[in-house]
Amino acid sequence: FFYSNDDRADLGALAIQQYLDPMGRLQKWARSFVRGAAPDTLELLKAISHGVSEALQYEVRESEGTQTPIESLDRGRGSCRDFA
Prior knowledge:
Layout: H1 5-11, H2 25-31, H3 41-55, E1 57-58, H4 69-75, E2 77-78, H5 80-83
Parallel strand pairs: 1-2
């Protein structure tokens, strides 16, 4: 996505990657949903949502905190807070 300067200022730290991905696995997985050079935003978000539900199984976890995205991909499951 390309954001205007004003939008980037509003996004602040939300636009910064929060989890390390030294092997680029999460990035590669996420990019698999992009169809074409300039995908339609709604279609991309639908594809990602569908992909998460296809790739990951929901589980109830009582432990505090969230898994990293890589942990969720490796395990193939996670809680709703992990999916978010």
